[in-house]
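User: structure tokens for this one?
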Amino acid sequence: MRVVILDAPEDLIAERHRLGHDRFDEVWEGEYHMVPFPTNEHQRVIMRLSLVLNPLAEEAGLEVRTQFGLYDPDVSDDSSYRGPDVVLFRAEHVTERGVEGRAELVIEVRSPGDESFAKLGFYERVGVEEFLIVDQDTKDLHHWARQDVRLVESDTPVVPLNAIPARLWTDGDTLIVETAAGSQRI
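Assistant:
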């Protein structure tokens, strides 16, 4: 079920915060998006990807966070941000509230009916260099890389990442991540 709330009642937001139900919520240019807790498979994919990518990110001078806010740097309040599942970024692009616009790689693990694809325009506008969607069930990949001011979708079944030395592809319902250290099945 898709729910978008404009002018959300303060008591509703306060209650969600009190109960810890707002952990994954996002605000899209003033629209409050209530996001349900991730499924077991969703979390498993996030965790495995983070473990495989973290050493490569560190070698490239990047930091990795999971379910961390990515904010529109042109908006000083909390009225425009997304919460990607995995984000790789340089230290100079982070503040106390989260990543300020530019990230080197953003990964969304897509659950049925979620809004992963709808985030493309935001990520493009705020300066994300590379965007990857992994379907939680089929492990199908969708990849976009920055070309000038646009994020352009790749059309190759094997996705070489620009941010770190890794290639990804799908084998049946398994995600393969290949690095110099070998291949990991996720």
